[in-house]
UniProtKB/TrEMBL annotation:
Residues 137-156 are annotated as: Disordered. Pfam families: NikR_C, RHH_1. It comes from Methylibium petroleiphilum (strain ATCC BAA-1232 / LMG 22953 / PM1). GO terms for molecular function: DNA binding; DNA-binding transcription factor activity; nickel cation binding. HAMAP family: NikR. The lineage of its organism: Bacteria, Pseudomonadati, Pseudomonadota, Betaproteobacteria, Burkholderiales. Ni(2+) binds at H77, H88, H90, C96. Binds 1 nickel ion per subunit. This is Putative nickel-responsive regulator. Residues 54-130 form the Transcription factor NikR nickel binding C-terminal domain. The gene is nikR. Residues 2-42 form the Ribbon-helix-helix protein CopG domain. Keywords: DNA-binding, Metal-binding, Nickel, Transcription, Transcription regulation.
Length: 156
C-alpha cells in the first residue's frame, strides 16, 4: 500500500472531518479512497472507457397508465441478457417503484435504461452504473453441469 500526504487549510480540513463523521467513516483514509474511486469512475464513464458494467435502474411509474406495465415487462424480456433481477414495490394506489439490476455492455445498459425511462408514465428514472472488468471464463467443479462463465469485477 502506498502512502501520500496532502495539506488542507484549516477550514477545509474541518469541513472534511464533519463530512467524514456524518457518513460514518472510521478515518480520513477510507473517505479519501472512496472519493478517489468515485472520481475515477466518473472520469472512466465520461471518456467511454467503461466497456462492461453492473447497474441499478430505479424508476417510479403510474400502473394505471395504459399498457405501461406490459411495455416495461416486454422491454425487460427483450433484454433478458441484461436484466438480472427486478424488484417491484407498491407506493400508493397509483404508483409503483421498480428497481432492475442490470449487467452487460455499458452502451447496451444505458440504452435499455433510456428506453425504460422514456416510456410515457415513467417518472424519476435513475441509473447507477459501475464499471467492471470481466475475468476470464473458468469452471467450478467437474462434469457437464459446470458451465464455463465470466466474473465481473468492479474496476479499480
Amino acid at each position: 500500500m502506498e502512502r501520500f500526504t496532502i495539506s488542507l487549510d484549516d477550514k477545509l480540513a474541518h469541513e472534511f472531518d464533519h463530512w467524514i463523521a456524518d457518513r460514518g467513516y472510521a478515518n480520513r483514509s477510507e473517505a479519501v479512497r472512496d472519493l478517489l474511486r468515485a472520481e475515477m469512475e466518473r472520469t472512466r464513464q465520461n471518456k467511454d472507457e467503461s466497456v462492461h458494467c453492473v447497474a441499478c435502474l430505479s424508476y417510479i411509474f403510474n400502473h394505471h397508465q395504459r399498457e405501461l406495465t406490459e411495455r416495461i415487462t416486454e422491454l425487460q424480456h427483450d433484454h433478458h441478457d441484461l436484466a438480472v433481477s427486478t424488484m417491484h414495490a407498491h407506493l400508493d394506489h397509483d404508483h409503483c417503484l421498480e428497481t432492475v439490476i442490470l449487467r452487460g455492455p455499458t452502451l447496451a445498459v444505458r440504452r435499455f435504461a433510456d428506453a425504460v425511462c422514456a416510456e410515457r408514465g415513467v417518472h424519476h428514472g435513475k441509473l447507477n452504473l459501475i464499471s467492471v472488468e470481466l475475468h476470464h471464463s473458468h469452471k467450478h467443479g467437474r462434469g457437464a453441469h459446470h458451465a464455463a462463465h465470466v466474473h465481473p469485477k468492479p474496476a479499480s
